[in-house]
Amino acid sequence: MKKILEVLIFLCLSTLSILAQSKSKLLSKEEVLEDLDYLYKSLIEAHSQSAVTASQIQDYNFGEIVGEETGEYPSLYASVIRYKLPNSGIEVQASKGYIVRVNGSTTERGVIPDIFIKDYLLDEEDEILEGLLKRLN
Q1: pLDDT single digits (tens) 57-101
Q2: Number of structural domains the chain divides into
Q3: What residues make up the domain containing 57?
């Protein structure tokens, strides 16, 4: 049970409870939902590392993943380098590496949770936390 709660803390800060990042300011789920237009215009950058970490928790049996499938794949290109070409000014980006999931899978699918609980983002409820608390009681 302790492992489930530790993983829940991680998930609340990552993919399964949305955090949006724009200009180095982290926004809570509530702040993002205040202006849905902002959600679609901003960069959501919690996904890739969250998927990698969630897959490591699963693959090393550190705990159980609760919630919904992650938004990104756990095997991915990473360490992106960005630069402008000097003559044309065109911005270029390229990956310096490829991360492969610990279990070796390169399937183009997010991490599937051990316990699936749908989170309805447009309501005030925290279905993931409530669902977990019901399972623990």
Answers
A1: 999 998 888 888 888 889 988 878 888 889 998 998 888 888 899
A2: 1
A3: 2-73+109-136
How many Cα atoms occupy the beta-carbon half-sphere of 118 within 13 Å?
3
| Inside any domain, residue 80 | no
Nearest residue to 48 via CA among 122, 98, 115: 98
Examine the pLDDT at 9 and tell me if it is beyond 90. Answer: no
Exposed (0-12), middle (13-18) or buried (19+): which is 73, by Cβ within 10 Å?
Answer: buried
User: Which residue's entry shows tokens 């991915």?
Assistant: 76
Domain contains 25:
yes
Q: Which of 10, 23, 26, 47 is nearest to 128 (CA)?
A: 10
User: Does residue 101 lie within any of the structural domains?
Assistant: no
- The Cα–Cα gap between 121 and 71 comes to 14
CB atoms within 10 A of CB 51: 24
Within a domain: 85:
no
Instruction: Tokens for 21, please give them.
Output: 């990042």
